[in-house]
């Protein structure tokens, strides 16, 4: 994972699989960065993510909840068709929006 803070937006760039093992390694880093920057917007870029499981969905929901204390918005970016389907089945798009954009470093 890479991250960048620019113009009040915190960007997270994920790659590979967002599963139980990956989430365990990334969770505290993401929590600390959100608490440090207290951004108004967090964009999660999934362009390089090949697989997301229920732990990955839970991780995204937990970051959404964490952002609520800063009145921030979480946006999911660049999902593949398969990952979009998984997120859609979870109902997550009722809480946050999706973008297809260039959030490249």
Automatic annotation (TrEMBL):
Organism taxonomic ancestry: Bacteria, Bacillati, Bacillota, Erysipelotrichia, Erysipelotrichales
A Pfam family the protein falls into: STAS
Residue stretches making up the STAS domain: 1-105
Similarity annotation: Belongs to the anti-sigma-factor antagonist family.
InterPro entries given in the database record: Anti-sigma_ant (IPR003658), STAS_dom (IPR002645), STAS_dom_sf (IPR036513)
NCBIfam families assigned: ant_ant_sig (TIGR00377)
Origin species: Longicatena caecimuris
SUPFAM superfamilies the record matches: SpoIIaa-like
GO molecular function: anti-sigma factor antagonist activity
Superkingdom to which the source organism belongs: Bacteria
Protein name according to UniProt: Anti-sigma factor antagonist
């Amino acid at each position: 994972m890479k991250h960048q803070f620019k113009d009040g937006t915190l960007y997270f760039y994920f790659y590979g699989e967002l599963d139980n093992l990956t989430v365990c390694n990334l969770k505290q880093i993401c929590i600390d960065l959100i608490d440090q920057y207290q951004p108004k917007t967090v964009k999660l870029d999934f362009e390089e993510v090949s697989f997301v499981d229920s732990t990955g969905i839970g991780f995204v929901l937990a970051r959404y909840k964490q952002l609520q204390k800063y009145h921030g918005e979480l946006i999911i970016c660049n999902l593949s068709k398969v990952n979009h389907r998984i997120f859609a089945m979870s109902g997550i798009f009722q809480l946050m929006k999706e973008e297809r954009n260039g959030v490249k470093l």
